[in-house]
Amino acid sequence: MSGLDWPGLMRGGLVGLRLQPEEFWRLTPAELALMLGAYAGPAPLTRARLDELAARWPDQAKGAENDRGGRAGQLGPAGGGA
């Protein structure tokens, strides 16, 4: 026994992904797993997480000093600024 759930993989590929049988059988198990979302990566940023990050690192108010010692929104000499 290979340890792979072939009926489940076939269902996912043929029904879920709507692959043709010849397309399904040309895939490696790793390719099929990727297509089925097994390696989906991190979850997308949610509104709650964005709010959490904004509270932790708030934007500076207009006119506040920036981290380079200048005024926020003001270009330096190289930029021909204000």
UniProtKB/TrEMBL annotation:
Query: Where, by residue number, does the polypeptide cross the bilayer?
Result: none
Q: Where is the composition biased (Gly residues)?
A: 71-82
Using the UniProt annotation, give all residue ranges assigned to the region (Disordered): 58-82
**Could you tell me which InterPro entries the record lists for this protein?**
GTA_rcc01693, Phage_TAC_6
The protein, known as? Phage tail assembly chaperone
